[in-house]
Design a protein that fits this description.
single chain; mainly alpha; 11 helices
């Protein structure tokens, strides 16, 4: 086989793949081939593209939500414990409200449950945590579903492309084998496209799931803190505070009564 035959065969493969002679000299143009695949196979390209839009939309929305609710709770838990030890539930609830975020919501509800002396504190607290966890896990099932479905959508596009190529080859026209090679190469783009979107979806799902688990650890720390004070009667702290205030008022009144009433010119 001489050089001219090799060059002619190389150009034939490139033209079968949808490339011009000039493009064959420059190399394979992926974006051109992808656009040809997108136009030739709407059955798989449109669903995968919709999946890609959903994936990137969820990634942006969840990233903004988690960043908005990101808090360092180490100092918060320490201050909250100090207020509970003093029996100052009002200050503890105000501290939780100032923290904000979903952690602040859970802490504020935990303080309220302590104030009403809930008999089954653990169960009532878990209800609050489950409701907040739903907010944290919102839209994550979309990532999991796309991560599982996108490769099959790409494989479906590849199978349909191969079927078209084999059908053209069965016609027995000149250059059918080269045309089949070009169509198969374009059909394989569908599998790569689906795998690419699936990889991004799975990585994002695992990343966000780890963030949700870290929030779960924070909620567990708050639960252990509240359970250590669940048997405390905070009403006694209020009674003691009222007694101290009345004693101070009584002492102040007696001090005023013990002072002799001097005339104005002796004061």
């Amino acid at each position: 086989m001489n050089e001219e035959t090799i060059v002619e065969e190389g150009l034939g493969l490139a033209e079968a793949a949808g490339l011009t002679e000039g493009a064959a000299e420059q190399g394979f143009n992926f974006f051109h081939a992808f656009w040809e695949y997108f136009q030739a196979d709407f059955i798989s390209s449109i669903p995968i593209s919709l999946c890609s839009l959903l994936v990137f939309g969820v990634i942006i929305e969840r990233s903004m939500f988690y960043n908005k609710n990101n808090r360092d709770i180490s100092v918060f838990i320490h201050n909250l414990q100090m207020q509970l030890e003093k029996g100052n539930l009002e200050a503890a609830q105000m501290l939780s409200a100032q923290l904000g975020s979903v952690v602040g919501e859970v802490a504020e509800e935990g303080v309220r449950l302590l104030a009403v002396q809930k008999e089954d504190f653990s169960r009532a607290y878990d209800i609050t945590v489950n409701l907040v966890t739903r907010k944290l896990q919102k839209y994550l099932p979309i990532l999991a579903t796309i991560g599982a479905v996108a490769p099959f959508l790409g494989l479906f596009g590849t199978v349909s492309g191969v079927i078209k190529a084999l059908f053209r080859m069965s016609l027995g026209s000149d250059g059918a084998s080269l045309t089949m090679i070009g169509e198969i190469s374009n059909a394989l783009i569908a599998t790569g496209y689906g795998l690419f979107i699936a990889i991004i979806a799975v990585v994002a799902y695992n990343w966000f799931s780890n963030i949700v688990r870290r929030y779960g650890d924070d909620f567990q720390l708050l639960k252990l803190l509240f359970l250590s004070f669940s048997t405390v009667d905070f009403a006694e702290f209020n009674d003691l505070a009222e007694v101290e205030e009345s004693d101070q008022a009584y002492v102040g009144a007696n001090q005023n009564q013990d002072k002799p009433d001097y005339p104005d010119f002796l004061k």
